Amino acid sequence: MAETQVVRQNVLRDEGRLPPVPEPGAMVIFGASGDLTARKLIPALYDLAEGRRLPMEFAVVGISRTEMSHDEFRNRLRDGLEEQRAGSVSEDVWESFSKGLFYLPGDSKKPETYEELKDFLKKLDGERGTSGNRIFYLSSSPSLFPTIVERLGEAGMSREDDGGYSRLVIEKPFGRDLESARHLNGDILRYFREKQIYRIDHYLGKETVQNILALRFSNGIFEPVWNQHYVDHVQITVAEDIGVGTRGAFYEEAGALRDIVQNHVMQVLCLTAMEPPVAFDADSLREEKVKVLKAVRPISEDEVGEAAVRGQYDGGWVFGEEVRGYREEKDVAADSETETYVALKLLVDNWRWAGVPFYVRAGKRMPKKATEISIQFHKTPHTPFSGPDTEGLEPNVLVIRVQPEEGVSLKIGAKVPGSGFEVRSVNMDLLYGSAFMEEAPDAYQRLLLDLMLGDPTLFIRADEAEGAWSILQPVMEGWSKDGHAARYPAGTWGPDEAGELLGHDGREWRRP
Amino acid sequence: MSVEQIEREFGRLRMNEDGTLGLRASVLNLVAVTDEASAGEITRVVSRLAGRFPCRAIVMISDPDEETANLDIRVSAFCDARGGSGSQVCAEQVEVHTEGPPAHHLQSLAGPLLLPDLPVFLWYPGAFSADSAEFSGMADLADRVIVNSGAAPDHGACLREISGLAQDPAMPAVGDLQWVGLSPWRSLIADLFDPPDRRGELGQIHRVEILHDPRGESRALLLTGWLAASLGWRPESARETDRGREFAFAGPSGEVIVALDPGSEDASLRRVRLYGEELTFQVSRHRELSEAMSTVMRGEDLLGERTVHLGFFDQDIILGEELRFRGRDESYAAALRTVVEMIDL
């Protein structure tokens, strides 16, 4: 006779004021000896554990080729945690948390590693009550992703037929170009269904980025003017004042287009240009983002020279400090043409944005760190105030600052006190980030919790990743034929060519 | 000092050295009603809170028993430099000292000082009388009333009074700082039953032991009320024991005994132990008090344990937590109703 399974509810949790805690589970981290595990993942998990957001029945299993015991792995993570959370690590909480940290040395290419892992996870289910729930976090070299996925699939660990879940987490970059992204997605989808896959771009875990949605869709005053009738153009800036530092080898392979534009900038573009989703859930939100990516007019290879600019920083001065040029950085070729700066002119061909250019730029060694979206409105059709009185009066600009100093500023015209009718532009600042002085949780903390709770809203769907590559693919191909990146001195806002990109349209970049 | 003068004074206080005005970021109005003895502490709590919840805080320090009318108003602004530009963001505080007849009409003083378009939280840190005209007038201004059931000397009467308020649809929603203080405990207890294979034990709980300090009985009662209301236990009887009090409940699977033991000396709640059919669950506060350990045992075998940070219990932090919440808290109201039934046994 078939047994009916009764699913009982935990009625003690039946109230809105108790925060949800994920189900029991084990997180397997591939490439666990790497930087990301010690600097980001474990501190975020520790914070969740300390803050009562991890279940008692939780375990982390690190895998990499380095030979290490469980204790050596724990000690290493403890050192990393001390670096990140100096002086605030509780001995008792760490002791309890670290009992759930394990390490398996193994080659992620070899099938026997997965048999060993499978047995170990089974053992943890019995000993720590992890209930057959698995998260496989790929923090290894991207070149290993397809192999790991294949081995997991072959070992039957992608299946969810025992009632437990199996989730796969992939760190950006999601491929190197459109073709490799499609291959990667195809490889993964052979073993995992899309709803099991969590592509992580930590940018979306930032409170400040999520606030773009809150600002747009919880304030009725912006939406009526958020279209081509009122907006002249949009500028998106993701600027960093730092150089490539110790990531020279990585950057030589990636460049700013792959490192920042394909993911962070495209996400900000989507959040700025998207239609209101019907709900704040994974499907609704991601559906609208994909529509934006589909609406971006492809830049043909012939147009790359007019619509795309790349640059590379030379030596210069950044906030009083003399800094070296990109080619003098560690692990960077002396004749490198890798771009550290990108500027693009994009057009979103839909009813809302027809004819409104989106100028986006991202760069390193800019004068300051700044991420912002600037909505530049049309000029007033007519002003009753005569010539000299309105000198310096510019069209309205709404700036959404993501970082630093999260907030909004609106440039409006105001009368200068005194006789006559002199009108000047005034910036009205609202630092909405300062209205709630709660410390925002780290982006990884938020995303790991969402992942364990099974909420993919802030993760990237396959078609999103591919959509972003589709836009950039012609640019990459065009640039591959012409190897020259324009130079700009460190501490400036990019090469002159970037200014010309807007100059041709009679516009100029805003100084953040 | 008129309302206009007060607003002008706030503008002056927010003025930067260069003549520009510091930003005022406000998310709510907070009106605290207290007496002279507690005024200093309450003012400090509100000042600390302003850093996290920029608001217009109005501290009403009243002595209605004085015969002579007296009104003294002080204003202050708490400004923090935020972000790279060093912009000042300010929160504002008005202290209203009132004696004699004006102290019977606090709402006439507080109402004009409220910032428009923002919710009003009315906070009674100490004892209050829900039947008084003064309370009723102030409650009319408020979107939410915050009390502290743990602050009253007669906790039975206080819990009964709050329960009446919470059930009254004409009253604003009620929040209780003691309930907020219980949140980490409730969360940790709920966590114990999250794994699907342990949920069945919830219906099999037959004994609960709560170790608290002698002044913490109110908190232990509220926790018991929550468990009973959530799990469908009906209060049946109460008795004094050698160690404290024992309540018997009729639960869905039979009798449930809850034993309250005031044997702890250093924590209002020290330990909660729940006995199921096969498993024993425990949440206990750690030696250092800032942490708590949860354990699950089968007989002598430890099946699971974890240690977490229990949270901070400073009054401004607890109050801040409560200020996040809007609307009526049905779990709290149900817990209170059960507590009243327990007290009436």
Describe the structure.
The complex is a heterodimer of chains A (512) and B (345). By secondary structure, chain A is α/β, with parallel strands linked by helices. Chain A has two domains: 22-171, Rossmann fold; 205-441 and 457-503, Dihydrodipicolinate Reductase, domain 2, CATH 3.30.360. Chain A is built from 13 helices and 17 strands. Chain A has helices spanning 35-50, 70-84, 91-98, 111-128, 145-154, 178-189, 207-217, 248-273, 282-295, 304-307, 443-453, 462-481, 496-503, and strands at 25-30, 58-64, 101-105, 134-138, 166-171, 197-200, 231-239, 308-314, 316-318, 321-323, 341-347, 357-363, 370-377, 397-403, 407-415, 423-430, 486-489. A nine-stranded mixed beta sheet of chain A has the order 16-15-14-13-7-12-11-8-17, with helices on both faces. Chain A is globular. Chain A starts with 24 loop residues before the first strand and ends in a 9-residue tail after the last helix. By secondary structure, chain B is α/β, with parallel strands linked by helices. Chain B folds into two domains: 3-142, no CATH class; 180-319 and 326-343, Dihydrodipicolinate Reductase, domain 2, CATH 3.30.360.10. In chain B, 32% of the residues lie in helices and 33% in strands. Chain B contains ten helices and 16 strands. Chain B has helices at 3-13, 36-50, 106-110, 133-141, 155-167, 177-192, 199-202, 217-231, 315-323, 330-343; strands at 23-24, 28-34, 55-63, 70-82, 87-99, 120-123, 144-147, 173-176, 207-212, 234-240, 245-251, 254-261, 269-275, 279-285, 291-298, 301-309. In chain B, the strands form two sheets. In chain B, strands 1, 2, 3, 4, 5, 6, 7 and 8 form an eight-stranded mixed beta sheet that branches. In chain B, helix 2 (36-50) packs across helix 9 (315-323), helix 6 crosses helix 8 and helix 8 packs across helix 10. The relative contact order of chain B is 0.12. At the A-B interface, helix 3 of A face helix 6, helix 7, helix 8, strand 15 and strand 16 of B.
